[in-house]
Amino acid sequence: MQKHALIILSGLTLGALAVFLVLMGNPGNYGVCIACMLRDITGALGLHRAPVVQYLRPEIIGLSLGATLTALATREFRTTGGSSPLIRFSLGFVGMIGMLVFLGCPVRTVLRLAGGDLNAGVGLVGLIIGIVTGTMFLKKGFSLGRATKISPANGIIFPLFILGLLAAALITPSFIFASKTGPGSLHAPLFLSLGAGAVIGVLAQRSRLCMAGGIRDAIFFKDYHLLYGFLAVFIAALAGNLLVGTFKLGFVGQPLAHTDGLWNFLGMLLAGLTAVLLGGCPLRQLVAASEGNTDAAVTVLGLIAGAAFAHNFGLAAGPKGVPPAGQVAVILGLLFTLGMGIAVCKFKVGGEVKNEKSRGCQGTVVS
């Protein structure tokens, strides 16, 4: 049990802070959602103009800076890259579309379920099947290549970008957009959100918390270590919701959710599949990018681009359901991802890549 103490502590802390952030002003069942928060930041920067989802979410800023400072303090900040960046960008792009059709990332899937949202249960089934499918590609030899050490100058660009977001959040210049209504207008106080994000970032960096990696490792290695973290997220969030009276069991009337089961399922199937092929869910990608991994940073840029595209072209879901364009986009995203998995298995790139269970689920090693 001592071996699993850190991952369990990380999960319990994330789940508890998620409930607390909702009490302090974040939208319901949305204390922490990497995909949704990146989407809101994308809108705040004007990369999409959906007026209800624009806000520089401090949780993302704090999480990234917490992970960076922890990696520097523990000498784990290493600048690596060069592992199929264009494929990573593309998979991040289509994965984000799947998550915005479902309305949440793997972290929010667990938090929604802990709040009683049964639609998230449908999404969780899709997520698991997507991860299982991705694991089948891994067993067939899927690899995005070997990351290598590169100039340290590359590794500081992403943290500098995050510092720029921090400055913008503190100064609030006129060119930064902020929602007056809708989810983007609902948020906890700035410094509280920054602090909560930093705590999560420190713990996620040390524990390698990753839900997609947890399910993958359970299938691939029969190792359930990472899954303990997300069981802890669920337990802490469920207990918190029951304690403060925000638990509501059912499909209808859930915050920032829709009841279209097919697209909840397919959206998260796409998210799970891309996460495994990328080597980690959005939370792990954000932490790895903050540790100097430029492949993960490219993936985060793909997530941001996917969010901008989804809202600029009307693909994202809303409380009323999924627009036809979003449904088409998910199907195309699944076809693209499956095709990419087959192509990469057939035409190996960069040699064989070993999976690093103990390092999380980034999926590459430094040569």
Automatic annotation (TrEMBL):
Keywords: Membrane, Transmembrane, Transmembrane helix. InterPro entries: Seleno_YedE, Sulf_transp_TsuA/YedE. It holds the Pfam family Sulf_transp. The chain crosses the membrane at residues 86-106, 118-138, 158-178, 184-204, 225-245, 265-284, 296-316, 328-349. This is Uncharacterized protein. It comes from Desulforamulus putei DSM 12395.
